[in-house]
Each structure stands twice: as structure tokens, then as C-alpha cells.
Amino acid sequence: MAFVTGILRPEEKVNGLWLVTAAGCSYILAYRFYGRFLRDRVMELNDQRTTPAFRLNDGTNYYPANKYVLFGHHFAAIAGAGPLLGPVLAAQFGFLPGFLWIVIGAVLAGAVQDFVILVGSLRRNGQSLPEIARAEIGWITGTATAVAVLFIVVVALAGLGLAVVNAIFHNPWGTFTIAMTIPIAFLMGFYHHNIRPGQVGEMSMIGLVLLIITIVAGKSIVQSSIGDWFSFDRTTLVWLLAGYGFLASVLPVWMLLVPRDYLSTFMKLGVIALLAVGIILMAPDIQMPRVTEFIHGGGPIIPGPIFPFLFITIACGAISGFHSLVSSGTTPKMIARESQAMVGYGAMLLESFVGVIALISACILIPGDYLAINTRLSAEALAALGYPISKIQELSQLVEVDVSGRPGGAVSLAVGMAWIFSALPGMAGLMAYWYQFALLFEALFILTTIDAGTRVARYLVQELGGRLYQPLRQINWWPGVLSCSALVVGAWGYLIATGSISTIWPMFGTANQLLGTLALCIGTTLLIKMGKARFLWVTAIPMVFVGLITLTGCYELWWIFWDRAANATDSAEAITMYVNAGLVGLVAILALIVLTESLIKWYGYLVMKRPYTSTEVVDGDGIRIPAGPCC
């Protein structure tokens, strides 16, 4: 770590091997020691408790999943585009600030949030984060959290969807391979649920073989007479993506969401492992400097200074409020044993490692080429900034796609990944295949978050609407399911269609980090009501740190949007910027409401010694899971 940070031999060029080694060792130590401390002393997991998956089993939303399928679903649902794209975009500031925050933030903040909220929801029949907030803190906090969460989810899905749309428009090969994962997931779901129940290995092999066939055959298919069927413009792709999100959010989880997530997870893990091996074998030099002059602001990708924009840009790679929705959404409804809740801590560390790999893949590109891909600035403008273009034409020829001017991070990451893979022994000349494979890899990350996120957002809309019309609270009532899902996908589809990466991504990052602050705030309340006040530092310290950073980011972003609106020459653009400023201000106000009411409650509980109640479900009759290995 001393060499990476430049404390020792600052003149020596850093290579990717150092970053992989430093990060991997940090995660192993964190899971072994800090994770065990959280499991045994803070949350006290107990396999003798009956979980909601058994107590409320309905075969659709609640059911005990195989532990490997559970991990696959949870990791795929939380590991969207954030850990892939955020670190890539934040590389504008240099590789070192992003690397440090990805590792430290995940260990002490992100993984803690995911784990505490998962256990809290698990012990409350799988309640969502807003429900927990309303029951444990008060109706004001519950309502503010619900509105904030709904806004944050919609913006998050728009930010993630925008990246995949920018990567595959007019790219029929990529569109074909991504589209084929849907029927493959259907086949896997029916095979595992109806044809050969419990045969996870067979289901995995079928999915893997079909996925490989799809990637290899994709180039020939799109070069045939039907190739034009898979070439879409940006607008068409937006609404096709919205259609997929709608479908995934209304079907039973075993039919599409879980098998697709399972397939995606092990593909993701395989690719990340292969990338790590490639980096270890090649030890590629990091071309990006430790820090750039953009740390003071004025960068071509992210306009603000390193504080606070580094943190809100990296977003999911270190801490993600979106994860708290998965941890209080689908995952707690599928856990068979409490000890399996450690998936919340471990999966976040693994996602952080994905962020490190993504950062390395982007930073091995020459800085001028990196900026040429992630901005639409001319070669002359980039040269004037001190970052001349070097090999962008050569890279475009190698991957058989013009990669310049495709902002969002996905394309630069895919180029970096393809370069690493094609440099491995026996892979020369296959960079175009690896590029499309890398895009598929990224898109699967994104789409698995979109399907789970849309379902979670549908739950939230039904909860809010249920206060006015009771039947909406029934998550299996089909009129409510269809109408609420359509409302959610329509909202994030509209944002993608009218937004850009420079507006949506900072807004997504800010909102996402604010939700992380709220989740840690609610987790602090849960610890108090568990009689664990001596461990409040576990959630309170990261809550204060992330909260201060993100509220500062809201302030900075509000002024950026307001200035753009005031200086806009187009009335439509001005309206969009004013709306963006209003949304950022609204979510900041909601966060302050939650934090204020929580502080008042904590003072009453801890200082005034006021009595309190908890909605934690006391284990009663039902299926008791025997001790010993499960599933």
C-alpha cells in the first residue's frame, strides 16, 4: 500500500498487480475479523430462528432459496453498473483517490449498511426500509424515507440504464447477446423449478453453455440477413429496456429474476476472476497519474472538485443506498437460515473488488484515449487540456466499433477489459470478441439491477398507494402489480430518454449516497432497540461521514443545475435543469427530516431513558431449521 500511495518510491510507476493484491488482502482480513465481529457480537445471528422464507412462504415473493442461488441473486441485484462505471468515471481525478475510497468505504460503511439492514428486515418479516423507518422511528420519517427512496430508485435505474443504452445503440452484436439472456433465464427457471427441482448444477451448466454459444454465434448472426433486427437507435433501446424492466418486475421471482441473476452472478465472478488473473500475469502499468489537476474542479467528465464529487461519482463501489432496498426487499424473503445473512457483508466486499478491477481496466488506457471515449470533446480540445489522443483509432479498429464519444464509462471499461483479455496467451486477434463479451458482462450487471430495482420500486409504490387505497398494499394483487410497475418503468424510461450522463450520474450518485446515509441512520436505531448501544459507532461514524459529504454534494450540485438553467439558451433544457435542481433539493430536505427526527428519538432513548418498543418478530410456531449444514 505504501508503494501504491507513493509514500515509498513515488517516482516508480504503479502497476495493476499492486492494486489487486492490496485490495484482495484488505477484503479477506475485513471479512475474517470485522465481519465475524458484526455477525457474532453486534447482530448475534441465530440459526434457530424461523425466517420469513418459511413462515410466509407463498412460492412467489417468499420462499427459501438454495444458498448458492441466494448468493447469486443478492450479488447480481446489488452489483449493477455502479461498481463498474463509478470508478471508471472517477478515474478523471487520478487512480489513487478512487482506489482508497473504494476499499476503505466498502469495509467500514457499505458492507456494514448492507448487513445491518438485511438482518433488521429479516427479523421483521422482510419489511422494506420505509416500513422499518415508519415502525421504528415514526410516521414522519417513514413517509419521508418512502418518498426519498422512490425518487432515488427511479433516478438510480435511469442512471444505470443510460449506460447500457449508450453502449449498445447501433451495436447489433451486443444487443443480440444481451437479448438472448432473457430466454436462457426462462429456460433455467423452468428447468430448476418444474423439470429438475433442486438440480442447481445442471441448471448452471445449461445456462453457461447457452451463454457461450450466444456470444460465439453472435457475430455470424448479426452479419447475416437478420442482423438489422438487432440494430436499434437510442430511443428504441430505452423503451425496450423499460419493457424488460416491466416484465421482470411482475413475473414470479423464480421464473426470470432469480435464474437470470444466478446466471449473471457466476458469469460476473468468472470474468472478474479472469481479469484479476490477467492483471496478475501481465502486471500492466497504470497510465493514469495518481492525481490529476481536475481534483480542483473543471473536469471534462465530472464538473466538480474531488470533494465531494469523487465520493458521489464512485457511489456503489464503496457504499450504495440502493443496496439497502435489496437487503430489505427480495433477499430477506429468500433466506433459509439467519447465518446466510452474512451474504450482505461478503457480497459488498466482492462488489468493491469489482470496482477496483474496473478502475484498473480504465487506468491502463492512455489518459487522452480514456477522455476521448468518455467525452465528446475534439482531439484539439483534449490536447489543449494536456491529454492528447494517442491510439483511439487503433482501438476502434481492433474492436470493430467506433469507441470515441461514447460517454458513461461502459465503453472505456470494455476497451480496457478487452485489451487485458486479448493480451493473454493464445488470445491475440480476438479483441473484437472480447469487447462484445465485456459489453455483455457490463450489461448483465446493469440489467440484473434494473429487474430487482424495478420490483423493489413497485413494492414502494404499492406501500405508498396502499395508504390511500388499501388493496394496493397486497403485493400479489394483479391490478396493483401491473399499474405500479408501469408507473415505475415509465418514470425511469422518461429520465433516460431526456437525460445525459453529466446530469443523471451525479444526481444518481448524490441520491444514492443520501439513501446510504438514511439506511445507516435507521440501522443505528435498530441497534439501540436491540440493546446494542455500545456498538452504535459501527453505523453512526460512517453515517456522519457519508452524510456530510453527500449533503455538501447536494449543495454543489444544486448550484450547478441552477447555473446551467439560468444560462441555457433552450427553454426545454432550462426546464430540465430547474427540475433537476428541485429534485436534488427535495431529496436533501427529506434526508434532513429523517436525520433530525432520528436524533430526537435517540436523545430520548439514550439520555432521557424513555421506553421504546420494537417491531422485531419474536420467533414462535413454525418450521424450525435443524442445526448443521443446510440445502
Structural class, by secondary structure, is: mainly alpha
Largest sheet: none
Q: What average pLDDT do the residues reach? A: 81
**Given the C-alpha coordinates, what overall shape results?**
globular
Helix content: 55-70%
Low-confidence stretches are: 620-631
Spatial separation of the terminal alpha carbons:
40 Å
- How much of the polypeptide forms β-strand, as a percent range? under 5%
Secondary-structure element string: HHHHHHHHHHHHHHHHHHHHHHHH
CA-atom Rg in angstroms: 23 Å
Number of helices: 24
The tally of strands reads 0
Structure description:
The chain has helices spanning 2-5, 16-42, 52-55, 67-78, 82-90, 95-122, 129-136, 139-168, 172-195, 200-222, 234-250, 257-282, 306-314, 321-327, 343-363, 367-374, 379-384, 392-399, 410-422, 431-466, 478-498, 501-529, 537-567, 571-606. The protein has 631 residues and is mostly helical. The longest helix is centred in the last third of the chain and has 36 residues, at 431-466. 56% of the residues are buried. The model is unreliable at 620-631 (pLDDT under 50).
What topology does this entry show?
Layout: H1 2-5, H2 16-42, H3 52-55, H4 67-78, H5 82-90, H6 95-122, H7 129-136, H8 139-168, H9 172-195, H10 200-222, H11 234-250, H12 257-282, H13 306-314, H14 321-327, H15 343-363, H16 367-374, H17 379-384, H18 392-399, H19 410-422, H20 431-466, H21 478-498, H22 501-529, H23 537-567, H24 571-606
Helix pairs in contact: 2-6, 2-15, 4-12, 4-15, 5-13, 5-15, 6-14, 6-15, 6-22, 6-23, 7-8, 7-22, 8-11, 8-20, 8-21, 8-22, 8-24, 9-10, 9-12, 9-20, 11-20, 11-21, 12-20, 13-22, 13-23, 14-22, 15-19, 19-20, 20-21, 22-23, 22-24, 23-24
